Amino acid sequence: MNSLRQWVRESIRIIEADFQRSADTHLIPLELPGLPGVELYFKDESSHPTGSLKHRLARSLFLYALCNGWLKPGAPVIEASSGSTAISEAYFARLLGLPFIAVVPASTAKEKLAQIAFYGGQSHLVDDPTQIYAESERLARESGGHYLDQFTYAERATDWRANNNIAESIFQQLRFERYPVPSWLVSSPGTGGTLATLGRYVRYRQHETRVLCADAERSVFFDSYVSGDRSLTLDCGSGIEGIGRPRVEASFLPEVIDAMVKVPDALSLAAMHYLARRLGRRVGASSGTNLIGAIMAGRYMLKCGERGSMVALLCDSGERYATSYYDAAWLRAQGFDLEPLIAAVEACAEHGAPLPGTLAQAGLG
Asked: Are 117 and 92 contacting, i.e. CB atoms less than 8 angstroms apart?
């Protein structure tokens, strides 16, 4: 066997050994008195070794690239990311002794940049978030490295049938609950890969479970879902780090999504703060987006006279946003006055009051 093939085998063994040392993530119930008969759980992906949902994706992308023969000893690995995927990929690159370069928007939280550096990665900052793809391709080409391209390969690198993917994990953890087959699974879209896994899995296992995608305000996914137009673009990045994209990514599969909502940034941040208070610890802003999506799905269930369970994703820890989303001065500078909205989210979740404003939605009646 040649030396490259031996290196690939050893690299896969290292990643698989790391997986065997990792426990599954927790499923946390969150009581919402404003949704009687609806039981909500959060899948806490912040408990992965690198602190986010993207740990699963990074592992899959590295295994996919290794088995396709795309990675070489000593050659750099490059990724376009808003931070969390890059943190997890830097972790796996360090396991394999590979240089890692993250191409990230210049606005990325400094806590994320510090974590990339902690795992031995280098951050390459780009002022225009829409240019991270082209810059990643350029760096890979000029360095002789490999661009992992999470936005293209997320949905195909993950084994959506089994192999302890996030969907299988959720159903295993629910099996002794009152409603073991959830009525809804709720996730926000970064690449779209997690939604693809959830949607494919419930169809493959013949569950009646529906999948709701909660999109960010500055993102094209919702409008593409409604219009069917995959050519839509924006000239700006999302205000909620880790989710929402200025273009429709290849891994976004609208055919496996049953409903979508578009959540204003201020409401996502208010829901994030409410959820943090309920859990007693900080969570990321995308978890707030998912909470709003879950509330809308739950209200739809009540309207239809349904009872059952829902699972939403808690994507990462809020400690990564200590100097942004959890910093009062930063919020004021961005024009956010969250306290009235936090109170409105609380009134909705605990007393059944309507959410403030009119949220764009599709597939919820």
From this structure: no
In this structure, are residues 130 and 246 in contact, taking their beta carbons and an 8 Å threshold? yes
CA dist., res. 182 & res. 293, Å (int): 15
- Ramachandran angles phi, psi of 47, nearest 5°: -90, 5
Condensed to tens digits (0 to 9), the pLDDT of residues 102-152 reads 999 998 988 999 999 999 999 999 999 889 999 999 999 999 999 999 999
Residue with the two structure tokens 């990462």? 316
What's the rounded Cα separation, in Å, for the pair 325 and 270? 10
pTM of the predicted protein model: 0.93
> Token pair of 244, please?
């929402």
Q: In 3D, which of 160, 184, 195, 210 has the Cα closest to residue 312?
A: 184
Are the beta carbons of 83 and 112 closer than 8 angstroms? Answer: yes
SS3 of 128-151: CHHHHHHHHHHHHHHHCCEECCHH
